[in-house]
Every structure is written in structure tokens, then in C-alpha cells.
Amino acid sequence: MRVFISGFGNIGRGFFESLLIKDAYLKKRYEDLVTIVGIVDSKSYEVNDGEYKICGFCTLGNKNNTGKLHTDRNGLSCTEIMDMVDFDLLIEASPTNITDGGEGLVNIRHALKKGKDVITVNKGPLALAYSELDALAKENGCYLRFEGSVGGGMPMINMCNEALVGQKINSIQGIFNGTCNLILSRMDSGIPFEQALREAQQLGYAETDPTYDIKGIDSACKVAILANSVFKKDVKFSDVSVTGIDTVTPEAVEMAAEKGMVIRHIGEISKDKLEVAPRLIPKNHPLSVPGSLNKAQVITDMAGPITVSGRGAGKSETASAMLSDLIWIMDRRTA
Ligand SMILES: NC(=O)c1ccc[n+]([C@@H]2O[C@H](COP(=O)([O-])OP(=O)(O)OC[C@H]3O[C@@H](n4cnc5c(N)ncnc54)[C@H](OP(=O)(O)O)[C@@H]3O)[C@@H](O)[C@H]2O)c1
To answer: pTM of the prediction?
Structure first.
């Protein structure tokens, strides 16, 4: 399995490291080796058209690597770099762009049109053009997998589509952004939004520009992805009704507490609803959780409510989802 990685930051590197950690497991499970034949980030790239084991081809800028490092892309697009090598699988881990999908969307289209499988954690392309990409994958006989795009280490998409196959899923409600939950749970103890946000930034949870999180954009992308992939709707990010948590006041939190409730930022997908908004949740409800975890409740026709929880972000957590997609693909490609 020859792998090309687009985006080599936290998550791209996390995936790479997971291959090193699971090297023995992968070698035992498959005769085929996983080899990295190309890596690209915003400024530089590395390509390797030889047959190298993963350990032989390391990281961008690593002086021990055996690939050819180019410290300047010289105006080359990712797709031009992709075309320099033969690969079987694209890992798309470049930044999420919710305006036009950015280079990530172009990369995924390009790979699928070439008949290559894709694993993406980049939410933008899926939240903007899911049905087009799904159709492209089918037309070209490729697999498009994206477990890590919703909830990082919390199993969600593949759980609904594979573990719960045959069941009717009536709704999914969940906390899909750990930063928002951390801020809201700090507000439970009486501190105002701005202070809770500052604390989340100091702890490294919220970005310097926290807009994607606090305005609900990140959660809305995940709602759109679940609506398309689990509920088989044909929606875009813009179809989701979104209210951020920056509208939540200490007075609203206090009034909620007086009624035995908390305010949580809930994404919901059901037959008639596609929404992300702050909601009143009874204190004893499964979604009334403190801290930065993600949590979701799936309501099924036969098994009733199923609740899952896990770390919604993080290098190793997200890599675990990507690894499960890799193994799913390799089981089929090497059978
Ligand atoms: N962080 C998480 O826990 C998490 C969880 C689930 C999903 N995701 C998604 O995973 C993706 C990556 O997140 P991250 O945390 O790894 O971000 P990150 O640390 O900022 O890394 C982004 C990487 O993409 C590269 N890049 C920027 N523009 C590019 C382009 N046009 N083409 C190719 N590469 C480009 C960057 O290169 P430079 O270093 O040169 O700028 C960097 O290597 C995002 O789409 C994010 O939404 C993240």
C-alpha cells in the first residue's frame, strides 16, 4: 500500500507515527508493506518513488530520511506533486477550509478520479461536496473513508454504518466540539464566557482565533458529514442551522442551574432537523458532561439509545480513527 500524505502537521505526523507504532502489527496482518511515497505541506514536499519501508522514509526535514526533500514547492500544486509518484491511498490532513474546500477538496477529487482510495480528516471537502465525492469514489471503484473527521477518537461514522448496520437510526444528538464543552462547563461554575474562553486558550484547547469552534462552524461541519454519511441526506454545511456559544450569558447558565439543567452545545441530526445550538440539558442526562470530551447519543429503532464518548481531537486519538480506516481498506485491497 503506497501512501501519499497531504498535510503534515499534528494529524499527518500523528498518522505517520501510528504506522511506526503499529509496524509489527501491520507486518503480521499483511504481506503488503505500508510505504510512504510522498508528503506535502504548505511550503515543502518530499517524494519517494522507490520501494521504501515506512521506517526508511521519515518526516519532512528529517536528515535521516531517504526521500527527496524539496524545501520549496516552487508554485507546484499538491496534485502536481501527487502526479510525480505512484500511490494507492491519499491521506488528506491539510487544514479545513469551509469556504471552498481549499486544496484538500482539489486533492481528494484528483485522487478519486485517478482511482486512488482516500482517507480524510479534513472536514471542509466533506461538509461542502460530500455527494459529489461519494459519487466519484463509486464511479472510480475507490474507497473514501473519514472516521477521524467527526469526533477524533470517538467512534461514530463506522459505528453507525457498520456496527449498527440494519438498524434504523432515528436521530443523533451530540457534543461534537470539546473546546465548546470545556468553556460551557467552566461557565457552570459562574465565570463569564470571555474568561472561560481565555482559560481554554491558555490550556491549549482553543485556537488563538477560536471562531470555528465558538461560532459552531466546526460542529456544523460534523453534523453535515453525519447527515450525509449516516442518514444518506444530500446536504452541505450551509444547510445546518447554527448558533454559537458566544451568545450564552452567565444569567442563562444560572437560570438553567436553578431548574436542574446545564447548557450544552448540541448538534442534532434527525429526519427534520440539522442543527447546532446551545440547549438546556437536564443535569442527569447523558449529554450533561463536564470537560473537553465529545459525547453522542444515537437513537436506533431496535437497540434504543446508544451513547458513545471519547476524545474528540488529538494526534493519537485521531490517528486511531485513521488507522482503523487504513486497515478497513487494506483488508479489502489485499484480500
Ligand atoms: N487537530 C485535531 O485534533 C484534529 C482532529 C480531527 C480532524 N482534524 C483535521 O485535520 C486536519 C489537520 O489538522 P492539524 O491539527 O494537523 O493541523 P496543523 O497542525 O495546522 O497541520 C496542517 C498541515 O497542513 C499543511 N498545509 C497547509 N496548507 C496546505 C496545503 N495547501 N496543502 C498541503 N498541506 C497544507 C501545513 O503545512 P505548514 O506547516 O507548512 O503550514 C501542516 O503541515 C484539519 O483539516 C483538521 O480540521 C484535526
So the answer is: 0.95
For the chain, the straight-line distance linking the first and the last C-alpha, in angstroms and rounded, comes to 13
Measure the CA–CA gap between 280 and 69, rounded to whole angstroms: 52
Decide if 222 is catalytic.
Answer: yes
Q: Which domains are seen in the chain, by residue range?
A: 2-152+315-333 (3.40.50.720), 157-311 (3.30.360.10)
Best mutation site among 5, 11, 47 for ligand 1 pocket (most ligand atoms within 8 Å of CB): 11
What the block records as the C-alpha cell of 135 is 459519487
CA distance readout (Å), 261 to 138, 247, 279, 294: 46, 17, 10, 19
**179 burial type by CB count under 10 A (0-12 exposed, 13-18 middle, 19+ buried):** buried
- Summarised one tens digit per residue, pLDDT across range 9-68 is 899 989 988 988 998 899 899 987 788 888 899 988 888 765 444 443 444 444 445 556
C-alpha to C-alpha distances, 197 to 43, 194, 216, nearest whole angstrom = 31, 5, 14
Pocket-testing residue among 17, 42, 209, 237, ligand 1, by greatest number of atoms within 8 A of Cβ? 42
How confident is the model over 99-128, as pLDDT tens digits? 999 999 999 999 999 999 999 999 999 999
